[in-house]
Amino acid sequence: MMQRRARQVHQKEERRQEILAAALELFKTSSFQGITMAEIAQKSHLGKGTIFIYFNTKEQLFLTLAEQEFLEFFEALDERLSLSKAPLSPGALTNLVVESLECRPQLPSLAAILHTVLEHNVDRLTTLKFKEFLANRALRTARNLEHRLPFLSPGQGLELVFQIHVLVLGVWQVSDPAPVVKDLLKAPGLHIFDIPFRPFFERSLMALIRGLEQPRSFQPQRSLFEEQTEAQG
Amino acid sequence: MMQRRARQVHQKEERRQEILAAALELFKTSSFQGITMAEIAQKSHLGKGTIFIYFNTKEQLFLTLAEQEFLEFFEALDERLSLSKAPLSPGALTNLVVESLECRPQLPSLAAILHTVLEHNVDRLTTLKFKEFLANRALRTARNLEHRLPFLSPGQGLELVFQIHVLVLGVWQVSDPAPVVKDLLKAPGLHIFDIPFRPFFERSLMALIRGLEQPRSFQPQRSLFEEQTEAQG
Amino acid sequence: MMQRRARQVHQKEERRQEILAAALELFKTSSFQGITMAEIAQKSHLGKGTIFIYFNTKEQLFLTLAEQEFLEFFEALDERLSLSKAPLSPGALTNLVVESLECRPQLPSLAAILHTVLEHNVDRLTTLKFKEFLANRALRTARNLEHRLPFLSPGQGLELVFQIHVLVLGVWQVSDPAPVVKDLLKAPGLHIFDIPFRPFFERSLMALIRGLEQPRSFQPQRSLFEEQTEAQG
Amino acid sequence: MMQRRARQVHQKEERRQEILAAALELFKTSSFQGITMAEIAQKSHLGKGTIFIYFNTKEQLFLTLAEQEFLEFFEALDERLSLSKAPLSPGALTNLVVESLECRPQLPSLAAILHTVLEHNVDRLTTLKFKEFLANRALRTARNLEHRLPFLSPGQGLELVFQIHVLVLGVWQVSDPAPVVKDLLKAPGLHIFDIPFRPFFERSLMALIRGLEQPRSFQPQRSLFEEQTEAQG
DNA sequence: AATGAATGAGGATTCATTCAT
DNA sequence: TATGAATGAATCCTCATTCAT
User: Fold this and answer.
1) Please, are residues C91 and D222 in contact by the beta-carbon 8 Å criterion?
2) What is the pLDDT of residues B171-215, one digit of tens each?
3) Measured between alpha carbons, how far is C29 from C23 in angstroms, rounded to an integer?
4) Confidence band of B216 (pLDDT split at 50, 70, 90)
5) pLDDT in tens, D140-155
6) In 3D, which of C45, C149, C40 has the Cα closest to residue C91?
7) What average pLDDT does the structure give for chain B?
8) With the C-alpha atoms ordered A78, A84, A88, A94, is the resulting torsion angle positive or negative?
9) For residue C224, is pLDDT > 90?
């Protein structure tokens, strides 16, 4: 053990980052449940107890990791969105998103456990901070999206951000099968479950954006009625 | 304990269903991790060990639950899709999906743990059976979708099925926050995370379908090039 | 399942033997703990419950197996002892024992669990029967031994039987290492633990018999005194 | 709980010994299977989990116990063997062994489960260490035996060590009957199974040593031939 | 007599978290 | 601050045995 004391604020922040880096590194080849705090401590050359000085719980540690990844993703996306003021085609926007995503390869897997795992066993305050950060960040990107996508009505930018989030975590779960499933993918008829993340995500997001782009005025609320009529016929 | 012996095949099936019903009931107010096999046994008036005669592992039990919910969802959807042969509008299809979904209120929460939890710790054979069932069922519905959505090219029906699945599990996770998060939803600025499942799912699916509906010929593969140009400009 | 009813006494005995044969077969490649009653039932084409009609407990089943093996061993040995009336050399007797042992290859492994496992969880009556059988059988062979080994004083025949038993189970345990140990036998210096049953048993038994053969009159009880004297010197 | 932290190496060793002492204490009145880790924890005033910091598995804990007992036995024996250089009579040696054994009353019962229980469920490294220790210790005592027993040819010292081991565990199993058997010992005819450890062990070991002592030249390898001849006649 | 569904005691082990040092 | 020893809750699953059919 090093026994270096981090008395300065910047030293503490450094230490914090070392821990996060170690966790991220382990997360590349393992899962949240598969990683133990002992491993993280060892990899960051710190004592087990030290980790808990910087993070209250294991979930909080990974939530911080997620926050960083989200931040960088949003930054990357915003940067790309700010390169021009011209309207974006659905394909172009999809591209920007995918590019931004590829800078942070662990974001999808972190997003996939965000709601079901990480946000449990975290204290109010931490959650509050995280959600506030996310809200601010999402709103900023939402505005940027609304600037580049003229067809978006006010508020739809934020909705699109959430929809992207939903697609990221959903597509990730579908494209990252359990070991047993992975083995079975070669079985006849099961290749349909072999779904690589990127192309499927691209097609889905593109379709979604193109759908948003369509003027809705021509099909106002009729869907329900149509259906019922059909059902009767 | 009852000590009634289920010796006939149909009695065994009945018992099996009793167990599943008990598990589903518990799942309504708790989570996979929060439920113990002992609770399920108690609720189905059986011994702890008896459960393991019918299901090898806890995961397998819930996988079977998921299978049943998926089956009923697909049946409900197929039935609705077969009521007419006329082309469906995006809104109409969305409606059909949401209706089918509402028959099985636990489907989203089961789908949400399917890939990350259930498909782990299940043996090859069980997984194979499950995936084969899912493949067959998905393909049938895919064909039905292609019949009612003329704009779908062959194979796009299946993709749409997967996209619906992705939206279901993704939107569910976003709309079913952890207790701590739920508490914070009233905080100023955090109401944006209060996302009820149904409307958000409806809008997202509708947009997706409308996007698929658009002829793609007008924007062929140019997206990447466009973007790069923009970035340079 | 066969559902054959064994109404006749001889049919029941047959069934009993089938079960024992199945258990013995499994015991060749597995251990007492490694074998389940379900496996024995399956291998003897009977229902699990049926096994318990013939044997009250798993231990009793294997105790019966041990009894049979002991019986056959004693028979084989007695037969060989009866072929002549001439005094036996230690080597010759050792040979007879080893030959008799080799007819029943499972005897050592059964003897090795007899006192530590089998005789636990067996009811009084069964144990009584077993022990009575063993006593009678041992006494008969003891007499035969005393006939062929003139140097044995009355009662020493029985003691020799017990000593043979002790050597069988002791040498077996030493010569049948756990898997982990077996792996380690190649390590430098650990080859000394690679002790094949037969030669080690032969040498040990031979020495023991030769020791019994020696007239004890010349060294009467002095050992203790000698030692104490030495210690003082 | 005490919550004293053992941070120094010697404190940790102390704690380790406390656990071993507790286990040994329990082992006096119970069996390996009858003792639970929880009991050991309670008796050593430690948390259940703490035990597993010091010993990976229950088997490892008891293996360590066995190692200590073996060590002390070997030490005691070596000490006695070193008191003089004069040749030992069989009776004298037997005495030394029995005396050494009586210092460690639990050794026989630990030896009796060594091969059948303890050496299972222990990792390679632990087993390696244990076996290496045992090899070294046995070889040293073997040399000492060869010094005091002139009739032993090189290598026979080690063989004698193993033979003593075999007798210890074998005689122990025979002399420590299951409760049911113990009850039956008064039954007519079954008193022959009432075999106290010490005298039976003494007589057996003495005979064995005396056998080893005999010059073998007069009966060279003829035993097999003799026997066959007899069988034919 | 035969069956196999039902039973439930039984226990080692992990690991996030705490806190004495 | 840093440490790592100490903690103990938490639970799935096996399998010998029973007994309703």
Assistant:
1) yes
2) 999 999 999 999 999 999 999 999 999 999 999 999 999 999 987
3) 11
4) low
5) 999 999 999 999 999 9
6) C149
7) 90
8) negative
9) no
DSSP A88: P
Q: Measured between alpha carbons, how far is B219 from B225 in angstroms, rounded to an integer?
A: 11
| CATH topology match: B1-55 vs B58-232 | no
Alpha-carbon span A177 to B16, nearest angstrom: 28
**Yes or no, beta carbons of B115 and A209 under 8 Å apart:** no
Reported confidence tier of residue B231, pLDDT bands at 50, 70, 90? very low
6-35 on D, CB < 7 Å from strand F: 6-7, 12, 15
With CA atoms as reference, report the closest residue to C177 among D116, B145, D43. Answer: D116
The beta-carbon contacts of C12-21 under 8 Å, at least 24 apart in sequence, are C12/C54, C15/C46, C15/C54, C16/C54, C18/C44, C18/C45, C18/C46, C19/C44, C19/C46, C19/C51, C19/C54, C19/C55, C19/C61, C20/C61, C20/C64, C20/C65, C20/C68
| From B24-38, C17-31, D217-231, the region with the lowest mean pLDDT | D217-231
Mean pLDDT across chain A, nearest whole number? 90
Helix (H), strand (E) at residue C9 = helix C9-29
Residue with tokens 């022959």: D192
Q: Would the Cβ of C47 be found within 7 angstroms of any atom in strand E?
A: yes
Task: Record the tokens describing residue D90, joined without a space.
Answer: 């069989």
**Whole-number Å distance between alpha carbons of A152 and A143:** 10
Q: Which residues of D touch C163 (CB under 8 A)?
A: 204, 207
DSSP string of D52-86, one letter each residue: HHH-SSHHHHHHHHHHHHHHHHHHHHHHHHTT--S
B125 token code pair: 């054979």
> For chain B, what is the largest distance between any 2 Cα atoms, rounded to a whole number of angstroms?
78
At A225, give phi and psi (nearest 5°): -60, -50
| Residues belonging to chain C | 233
**Bases on strand F under 7 Å from any protein CB:** 1-21
Whether C91 sits inside 8 A of D122 (CB atoms) is: no
Rounded to an integer, what distance in angstroms lies between the CA atom of residue C7 and that of residue C24? Answer: 25
For chain A, the structural domain boundaries read 1-55, 58-232
Model pLDDT for residues D92-118, shown as the tens digit of each residue:
999 999 999 999 999 999 999 999 999
CATH H-level, domain A1-55: superfamily: Homeodomain-like (1.10.10.60)
Most distant CA atoms of chain D, gap in Å: 79
Work out the number of other CB atoms within 10 angstroms of the CB of residue A16: 17
**How much is the pLDDT for B7?**
81
Fold topology of A58-232: Tetracycline Repressor; domain 2 (1.10.357)
Residues D63 and D129: their CA atoms lie apart, in Å, by 11
**Cα(C142)–Cα(C160) distance, integer angstroms:** 7
The two structure tokens encoding residue B176: 């079913």
In Å, how far are B210, C132, D181, D195 from C124, measured between CA atoms? Answer: 81, 12, 8, 19
- This prediction has a pTM of 0.89
Q: Strand E proximity: list residues 4-23 of B with CB under 7 Å.
A: 4-7, 12, 15
